[in-house]
Amino acid sequence: MSASRTSRSPVLSTLGLSLLLLAGTAHAQKAWVVGQSAPLSGGNAAFGRDIQEGAQAYFKSVNAKGGIAGLPVELVSLDDKNDRKLAGANTGKLLSENDAVALFGFASATLSLDAMPQAEKAGVLFFAPFSGANPVRKPSPVVFTLRASYGDELEKMLSFWTGLGIKQVVVVHYDDEVGKQNLAVVTDYLAKQGKKPAAFALQRNAKVGEAQVAQLLSLKPDVIINTVLSGPAAEISKQIVAQGKFIPTSSLSFVGAQQYIEAASEAGAGVSISQVVPNTASSLPVVKECSKALKDAGVKQAMNSTHLESCIGAKVLTEAMRRSKKPGDAKALLLAMASMGSYDTGGFTVSYSSGQHHGSKYVELGMVTRDGKLRN
């Protein structure tokens, strides 16, 4: 008996190893896990939830049709409370515990700073961060953006204001690495015209008080260029209007148009906000598709530009999944994104290659109306 048992052990060992390998492969290909760290609570929670909802709605529509290559797309969203360190920790969990094949839709460049090096080390796609700041546009083998740069946005708005003869430009920015880089973009642009902006720095995640707004007004701005989030931007607008004043203001898309409109209420009227995706009221096929996906997913509020950008990003990501040569594999997905070329999502076209990681330069300026709408 012992001799017979011994003679079968190599066969059993081989069979057991094969079963283990098959089990491991099945586990690896169970789903396309897309990892996301976003501010789902705290002062920027509305923005984070809109990013989550836009992507989740599109992925649900894909899964309702059978997924991609027979595998469902699973969005795993972790709350970073708009904190850089927590976003970095979340990234580690998404890569090591959730086996994410892509990281998607991080809510800012600051929240991406500690995440991108981890994605590079793991060889995992870091796609469509909600930022046009320089840190997410530096050469990287894994970072691919969907939107235009802040340089593109700022040049559009500065060209408009300087064309009207505006002289004193004041830039409201965060007093950190990303905020100072946004200030530098404006400074470089105006330097070509022999002008220099005034700078007004805010601490990230801090409230804006009356004394700060008084300091801002003491700079005597002809126009305010806002590069901060909806909370502080709305508070500045409210206090200016409460003093019976009107100062022309333009905000980067980073502000979150709908989030700003809701926070500023009537004080937001007349503020211009740059947009990096089409107007949500347009008749473009991708706008209609995303609006339907959100409704089908049970999202009650009307689709806003944050929803739309996230939905378009999710559509581009699933197209890369379709072109991937190995379902559920992170390396194959990265290669598919790098070789996508030009892709029309339905009226909004992006283009990627191994040497071109930034998909779009689309920028339009919208104006907030008295009834709380954003009109291009």
Explain what you see.
The chain is an alpha/beta fold and 376 residues long. It has helices at 2-28, 45-63, 84-96, 109-112, 116-122, 150-163, 177-191, 210-217, 230-242, 257-264, 285-296, 305-323, 330-338, and strands at 32-38, 73-79, 102-104, 125-127, 143-144, 169-174, 198-202, 223-226, 249-251, 272-275, 341-344, 349-352, 364-368, 374-375. The strands form 3 sheets. The chain has a 7-stranded mixed sheet with strand order 7-6-8-9-10-13-14. Strands 2-1-3-4-5 form a 5-stranded parallel sheet, sandwiched between helices. α2 packs across α11 (285-296), α6 (150-163) packs across α7 (177-191) and α12 crosses α13 (330-338).
Describe the secondary structure blueprint for this structure.
Elements: H1 2-28, E1 32-38, H2 45-63, E2 73-79, H3 84-96, E3 102-104, H4 109-112, H5 116-122, E4 125-127, E5 143-144, H6 150-163, E6 169-174, H7 177-191, E7 198-202, H8 210-217, E8 223-226, H9 230-242, E9 249-251, H10 257-264, E10 272-275, H11 285-296, H12 305-323, H13 330-338, E11 341-344, E12 349-352, E13 364-368, E14 374-375
Parallel strand pairs: 1-2, 1-3, 3-4, 4-5, 6-7, 6-8, 8-9, 9-10
Antiparallel strand pairs: 10-13, 11-12, 13-14
Helix pairs in contact: 2-11, 2-12, 6-7, 9-10, 11-12, 12-13
